[in-house]
Design goal:
- By secondary structure, this protein is mostly helical.
- The chain is 85% helix and 0% strand.
- The protein is built from 10 helices and no strands.
- Helix 9 packs antiparallel against helix 10.
- The two termini are 21 Å apart.
Length: 248
C-alpha cells in the first residue's frame, strides 16, 4: 500500500471521527450518540478483561469454522456439478435458492433446527457456499481447451488431469472466493449471533447493549466487528497475493 493511499485513508478517518464528535456534542445525549472519546474509553476498558477476549475468540472460531465448512461444501458441490450434468441439474436450483433467500429467513429457520451456538457456523457456511461454488465452476469452464487436448494425447489419467490441468486453472478462482466470502461470512455470522444470542459471542453483547440501552457498549462492540472485519480482509488479501505470486 502506497504512502499516499495511507495518508488519504487517515485524513478520511479523521474527518468522519470529527463529524461524529461534532454530532455528539450537538446532541449531547450519550444514550443516542456517545462521543468517540467515550466509545474509545469503553472499548479500552472492555479490552483489558479476559471475558472480552473469550467472547471475541469464540465468535472468530465459530465463524471461521463456518467459513471453512462453506469452502469445503462449495468445492465438493462444484466438482460434482462440473463432472455430471445430472448433478448440475440437481444442484444449481439449490444454489440459486440459497443466493436469493434473505439471510434473516435462514437464521430464523436454523434456530428451530440447531442449537443456538451452532447457528452462526451454519449461516456463515451457507453464505460462503454459493460464492465458492460459482467461482470454482467458472474456473472449470475457463480451463484451456488446448491443455485438455494435450492431456488426452498424453493419456493422462483422471487424477493427473485434475491435478495438472484443472487445479491450476481453478486455483485463482478458489483463492478469490475465499477472500471475498470471508467478509460476508463474518457479517452474516455476527448477525446470526445477534438474533440467537449464543453464550460468549460478540453478537450477543451487541444485542444486550441495545436491550439495556448501553449505547457506548453498543458502539464499542460494533467497532470491534468493523476492526476485525478490516484486519481479516487485509490478512487474507495478503495471503491471496502471495498465492498468486507463487503461481507465477
Amino acid at each position: 500500500m502506497s504512502v499516499k493511499r495511507i495518508l488519504k485513508g487517515t485524513v478520511a478517518l479523521i474527518f468522519w471521527i470529527g463529524v461524529w464528535a461534532i454530532g455528539a456534542k450537538i446532541i449531547n445525549q450519550v444514550l443516542i450518540l456517545p462521543s468517540p472519546l467515550t466509545v474509545a474509553k469503553r472499548l479500552l476498558s472492555l479490552s483489558v478483561t479476559g471475558d472480552f477476549w473469550i467472547k471475541t475468540g469464540t465468535s472468530l472460531l465459530r465463524i471461521f469454522l463456518g467459513w471453512m465448512f462453506g469452502i469445503i461444501a462449495g468445492a465438493i458441490l462444484a466438482v460434482l456439478s462440473s463432472a455430471s450434468s445430472l448433478c448440475n441439474v440437481l444442484i444449481s436450483p439449490v444454489i440459486h435458492i440459497v443466493k436469493a433467500t434473505p439471510v434473516t429467513s435462514f437464521i430464523l429457520l436454523v434456530m428451530l433446527w440447531l442449537g443456538y451456538s451452532n447457528v452462526p457456523i451454519f449461516i456463515a457456511a451457507l453464505l460462503v457456499l454459493p460464492i465458492v461454488y460459482g467461482n470454482i465452476t467458472t474456473g472449470v469452464l475457463q480451463t484451456d481447451g488446448k491443455l485438455l487436448e494435450v492431456a488426452k494425447i498424453y493419456r493422462f489419467g483422471r487424477m493427473k488431469t485434475l491435478s495438472k490441468v484443472y487445479f491450476p486453472s481453478v486455483r485463482p478462482y478458489l483463492l478469490s472466493a475465499c477472500v471475498t466470502s470471508l467478509g460476508l461470512a463474518w457479517k452474516a455470522g455476527i448477525a446470526a449471533e445477534v438474533l440467537c444470542q449464543p453464550k460468549r459471542a460478540i453478537g450477543s453483547e451487541i444485542y444486550y447493549s441495545r436491550y439495556y440501552l448501553e449505547t457506548p457498549d453498543l458502539f464499542a462492540w460494533t467497532a470491534v466487528v468493523i476492526l476485525l472485519s478490516y484486519l481479516l480482509e487485509k490478512l487474507f488479501r495478503l495471503i491471496f497475493r502471495k498465492g498468486v505470486q507463487n503461481e507465477i
